[in-house]
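Q: I have 106 residues here and want to know how they pack in 3D. Can you give me a structure?
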Amino acid sequence: MVRSVAWLPSSEGESPPGQYIHHANLCLAFLSVEGSQVVEMTLDGVIRETHELDRLDLQDVAVTPDEERMLGVAILLSTKSGLQPSLSKAEKRIVGASIYISASSK
């Protein structure tokens, strides 16, 4: 289930060289938040990259203007060692993360 969608900054203007080009030199791509995954795709439905964030239930993402990082807001489902938070409500387990978007997606 898709929770949110974030346009890549170059979708709002001219696309950098080598990226997906559509009418009027626009790079029409976005990030789709789907549970613990962030899927980067074009408006033509071509999946450019999938980012899997285990142990997190993503709520939303934003992309920096240089398209180098995305900032995600998520609820922690379990720790790295597998422990599940039980003494705090979900809204008190919100995590902010800055994630590097690899150059392979550009």
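Q: Anything worth noting?
A: Residues 12-25 have pLDDT under 50 and may be disordered. Residues 13 and 26 are 6 Å apart (CA to CA).
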